[in-house]
């Protein structure tokens, strides 16, 4: 037993040293050019997050913690890429203009009039969102984070981005998201530091009354901006308060993706109206009923959360699926 404990402690030390080295060294990045309608090209910057093992969740003595952040447990994540910023309104508008249902239906009707045999439309076309209720930008500038999309809409955006680029972009898992925010640190706010340093890195209740353009604050140690605050970010996982408790040995858990089913999905990071405690690395958010109150439709839209400017999206991609040279 003593030998096993020594080996486990040794492995833990190696992973900790590896994470520290990664946090102290600039990570590999690349810029993805995305061709959009009108002959334009928009871009996102991706950073390669090194694989590693970390303690997911919060310790019992962490200030501001909630019960569903426990028990703290070991998780190992494989290397992956993560967008350095939240997806902007500019890029989400390009997706919307190319895919939304009303426009596609009109184009199919026009094509059918000219060539009845082509009425089926494009085989690979993305079935996009219905027309947005109100103003999708909510009055914000195009370099602010995209807002007001449902989880389903966020997933469809990832499919569109994958089709445009030929790379399998997706939402990050909850484990990947927390690991990236920590950037090699097990402190409550990861490599950002403590609450005194938080205003230098995040837009939250103490310094914001709405969203702000992406990447205006300092990044964390892995070059990621706005991981805490500005807008919460959809992740892949369904939400359950029992997720961590149901993760059983062997440990560490490798690349977990959360429950197989559920009613709502997890959103991480807190937003511009959040108190500091909601910007902790371990803090867990999820879709709440009031998020849909702005939607007058019955049934509620599966695409939009009208007038909700606290939820956005950041994309990821598994490194072993990368076609990047």
The CATH homologous superfamily: paralog of FGE (formylglycine-generating enzyme)
Strand order of the largest sheet: 1-2-5-11
* Shape descriptor: globular
By DSSP (H or I, 4+ residues per run), the number of helices equals: 6
Question: What does the radius of gyration come to?
Answer: 21 Å
How many individual β-strands?
A: 11
Percentage of residues in DSSP E strands: 15-25%
Quick take:
With 325 residues, the protein is an alpha+beta fold. It contains six helices and eleven strands.
Describe the structure.
There is one protein chain. The protein is an alpha+beta fold. 23% of the residues lie in helices and 16% in strands. The chain has one domain: paralog of FGE (formylglycine-generating enzyme). The chain has 6 helices and 11 strands. β1 and β2 (40-49) form a beta hairpin. The longest helix has 23 residues, at 2-24.
Quickly list its features:
single chain, 325 residues, alpha+beta, paralog of FGE (formylglycine-generating enzyme), four-stranded antiparallel sheet, 6 helices, globular, disordered N terminus
């Amino acid at each position: 037993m003593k030998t096993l404990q020594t080996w486990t402690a040794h492995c833990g030390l190696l992973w900790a040293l590896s994470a520290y080295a990664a946090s102290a060294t600039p990570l590999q990045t690349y810029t993805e050019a995305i061709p959009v309608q009108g002959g334009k090209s928009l871009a996102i910057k991706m950073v390669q997050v090194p694989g590693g093992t970390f303690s997911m969740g919060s310790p019992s003595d962490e200030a501001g913690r909630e019960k569903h952040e426990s028990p703290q447990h070991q998780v190992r994540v494989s290397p992956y890429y993560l967008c350095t910023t939240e997806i902007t309104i500019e890029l989400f508008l390009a997706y919307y203009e190319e895919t939304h249902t009303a426009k596609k239906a009109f184009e199919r009707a026009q094509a059918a009039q000219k060539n009845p045999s082509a009425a089926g439309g494009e085989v690979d076309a993305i079935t996009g969102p219905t027309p947005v209720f109100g103003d999708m930008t909510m009055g914000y500038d195009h370099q602010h984070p995209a807002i007001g999309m449902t989880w389903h809409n966020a997933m469809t955006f990832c499919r569109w981005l994958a089709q445009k680029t030929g790379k399998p972009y997706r939402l990050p898992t909850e484990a990947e998201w927390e690991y990236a925010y920590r950037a090699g640190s097990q402190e409550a706010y990861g490599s950002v530091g403590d609450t005194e340093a938080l205003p230098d890195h995040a837009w939250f209740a103490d310094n914001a009354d709405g969203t702000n353009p992406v990447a205006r604050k300092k990044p964390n140690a892995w070059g990621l901006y706005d991981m805490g605050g500005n807008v919460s970010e959809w992740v892949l996982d369904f939400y359950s308060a029992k997720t961590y408790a149901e993760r059983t040995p062997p440990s560490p858990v490798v690349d977990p993706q959360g429950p197989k089913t559920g009613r709502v999905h997890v959103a991480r990071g807190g937003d511009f109206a959040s108190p500091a405690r909601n910007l902790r690395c371990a803090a867990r958010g999820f879709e709440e009923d009031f998020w849909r109150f702005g939607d007058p439709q019955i049934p509620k839209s599966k695409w939009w959360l009208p007038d909700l400017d606290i939820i956005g999206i950041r994309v990821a991609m598994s490194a072993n699926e990368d076609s990047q040279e």
